[in-house]
Amino acid sequence: MTILPPSVLRALERFHAAHPWDHNARYHPWIMRQLPRRYGRVLDVGCGSGDLVRLLAGRSTSSVLGVDSDPVIVDQARELTFPTLPITFTAADAMTGLSDGPDSSYDVITCVAVVHHLPYVDALALFRRQLAPGGTLVVVGLARAESLVDHLLGSVAIPANVVIAWVKNRGRPVARPVAMSAPTRAAEMGFREVVREARRVLPGCRVRRRLFWRYTLVWRQPVRS
C-alpha cells in the first residue's frame, strides 16, 4: 500500500471497520469470465467460506473441491453450502494435504489471495502438475509494493476503496467478514519477481497488475499431441 501518515491510516482503518467489504469477492466475476462455459473437476485453493466454490459449482459437470488450511472456516463453508451441490470441502495444507498423482488432475484450479502464504514457485509447480491438459489456472495474488507504478496504483485504490465501501454498506447493517483462525502474513515478493518466477514455471502465462493491491495470473495447460 502507499505510504500514508499514521493518522490517515488509522482513520482509514476505522472507516473500513465500520464499512467492510470483500476485496477478493470483487474478482469472482472476472475469474468466471476466464473459464469455459462448462468444465469438469475443479480445485479451489484457499476456499475460505466457499463463495467462489459455490460459483464454480454452477458450471461444473463433475465436482468441486475447496481446500483451506483453516478448519474453522472450512466448517463454516460446509454450513453455508446446500448438501445437494457437488462440492467437497477439506481442511488441509494445499502443499502437502492433497494427492499429487495421475488421478488428481483438475480442469480448473483457482487460488485467490493465498499463494503469497505458500512457497510461490513450488505452489505454481504443484498447480501445473495437477492441471489437466487444456485446463485453466487462475490466480489472484498479492505482491509487495516496490515500484512507482505499484505506489501509484495504491494511491488510486485508496479513494476507490472508500467509495466502494460506502456504496456497498449504505443503508445496510454492517456485515462483518467471516472470521478466520489461520495465521496470515504480508506479501514478500514484489510484482517483478512474481512475473519472472511465474513465467519460468508457467511459460506463456498472463500476469497483470490490478487495483486493490492485487495481481492476476491466468495460464492454460497445453493439450498433449
Short description:
With 225 residues, the chain is of the alpha/beta class.
Plain-language structure description:
The chain is of the alpha/beta class and 225 residues long. It has one domain: 3-Layer(aba) Sandwich (Rossmann fold). 35% of the residues lie in helices and 20% in strands. It has 7 helices and 7 strands. A 7-stranded mixed sheet has the order 3-2-1-4-5-7-6, with helices on both faces. A hairpin with a 3-residue loop joins strand 6 (206-210) and strand 7 (214-220). Helix 5 runs parallel beside helix 7. The termini are far apart.
Name the beta content range: 15-25%
Low-confidence stretches: 162-166, 173-177
Q: What Rg do the Cα atoms give?
A: 18 Å
CATH class: Alpha Beta
Main-sheet strand order equals 3-2-1-4-5-7-6
From the 3D structure, determine the CATH topology: Rossmann fold
**What structural class do helix, strand and pairing data support?**
alpha/beta
Tally of helical segments: 7
SSE arrangement, N to C: HHEHEHEEHEHHEE
- Give the helix proportion (percent range): 25-40%
Q: Count all strands and give the number.
A: 7
What is the approximate shape? globular
Task: Summarize the topology.
Layout (H helix, E strand, L loop, with lengths): L5 H13 L9 H6 L8 E4 L5 H7 L6 E5 L2 H9 L7 E5 L14 E7 L7 H11 E11 L6 H22 L21 H11 L4 E5 L3 E7 L5
Parallel strand pairs: 1-2, 1-4, 2-3, 4-5
Antiparallel strand pairs: 5-7, 6-7
Helix pairs in contact: 5-7
Characteristic key phrases:
globular; alpha/beta; 7-stranded mixed β-sheet; single chain; 225 residues; 7 strands; Rossmann fold
